[in-house]
Design goal:
Blueprint: H1 21-36, H2 47-59, E1 66-71, H3 79-111, H4 117-130, E2 139-142, H5 149-156, E3 162-164, H6 176-183, E4 196-202, H7 210-223, E5 226-231, H8 237-257, H9 262-270, H10 273-288, H11 292-300, E6 313-323, E7 327-336
């Protein structure tokens, strides 16, 4: 049930300059855990897996045309999981396509065994060319105004398709060198004409007050070919309840997932700053999360946009359950089709 109140931009503890950076990192590590881990029987898949599947469904085969720039990445968040899930799916599709092409090729040999070698060769060559897909994978780039270099280095060491920008990146103004990297292949820096920048905001867009949110949207609309606003909550009683449950979840699981990180465990169990901040900030996040109508209204209020800028853009939004009984992931996706 939706809360009968408008969006309220309360203050989150982790947004405050007085909050110690090392504690902010511990809170972000806990949030990453809640994104990427599955907790049966209340979850059948991790929230990150559900959102990655949703992105694939919305973008379809064109997902291979993008380089995904993750803004406000924090400690990495769900982006490494997105990369694994999406590329695993794309690689499986490529393998299935390859085997189908092989089957077609073999059938062509059998059906045209009596044809001339020239005709047969031309046919087989055509089939091979049509099914050639040398690089089905997509790349993701981690960025933040306050880069988390050690966490990002560790995450990127596990995948050739995950990269990071060590310099601060403002989500209101994408730097030209980052756009150039997104248009190229981030692994080789070689031009790749089919690669287009796609902006990701995972559990991040609600942090921006309206004036900054307009600038973030303007930047996405003018420098990218798509963007996605991804949240794990909405303004509802159900989301408030799920947020309240994250405290006990962290108490029950942190000893296992963070064993060896004694600072994380100290501020979870001895001095429980981490679960307390996660819950309190989670309540505020619910109050801050925007509806589809509120995001569209922000775009209408952007100054300096060319007349008719909406032409070629399509916008999709929705919700999907991630935690029983009332936890929902919400998304707003904009795609520039032309």
């Amino acid at each position: 049930m939706a809360l009968p109140i408008p969006r309220i931009h309360f203050y989150e503890i982790t947004d405050q300059s007085w909050f110690p950076p090392f504690l902010r990192e511990k809170v972000q590590a806990a949030l990453t855990l809640l994104w990427v881990k599955c907790f049966p029987p209340f979850q059948s898949h991790s929230p990150a897996s559900i959102v990655a599947n949703t992105l694939q469904s919305i973008l379809g085969p064109s997902i291979k045309n993008y380089t995904f720039i993750d803004f406000c990445s924090g400690a990495g968040g769900p982006t490494p999981q997105f990369e694994r899930e999406i590329n695993r799916s794309l690689e499986l599709q490529a393998i299935q396509k390859y085997h189908a092409a092989q089957a077609n090729r073999n059938a062509a040999r059998r059906n045209y065994v009596n044809a001339t070698s020239k005709e047969n060769g031309a046919l087989i060559s055509t089939i091979s060319a049509d099914d050639d897909d040398t690089d089905p994978s997509v790349d993701f780039i981690l960025t933040d105004l306050f880069p988390h270099i050690p966490s990002w280095k560790l995450a990127c060491s596990r995948s050739h398709h995950l990269h990071y920008i060590p310099q601060p990146v403002d989500a209101c103004s994408t730097p030209p060198n980052l756009l150039s990297l997104a248009h190229a292949n981030p692994r080789s820096h070689q031009p790749a004409k089919t690669r287009k920048p796609f902006h990701l905001f995972s559990l991040a867009f609600h942090h921006f007050p309206d004036p900054l949110a307009r600038l973030v949207l303007k930047d996405a609309l003018t420098t990218s070919s798509g963007f996605a606003i991804l949240e794990l909550e909405d303004r509802s009683w159900g989301s408030l309840f799920i947020v309240l449950m994250t405290g006990p979840i962290l108490w029950l699981t942190s000893w296992y997932y963070f064993w060896g990180d004694w600072t994380q465990l100290f501020f979870t169990y001895v001095l429980p700053v981490v679960p307390l901040v996660v819950v309190l900030d989670g309540f505020v996040s619910c109050m801050r999360t925007r509806t589809r109508g509120e995001i569209l209204r922000l775009m209408d209020e952007i100054e300096g946009m060319e007349e008719g800028w909406r032409v070629g853009w399509r916008f999709e939004s929705g919700k999907r359950s991630h935690t029983w009984p009332t936890g929902v992931a919400t998304w707003f996706v904009g795609v520039k089709d032309r």
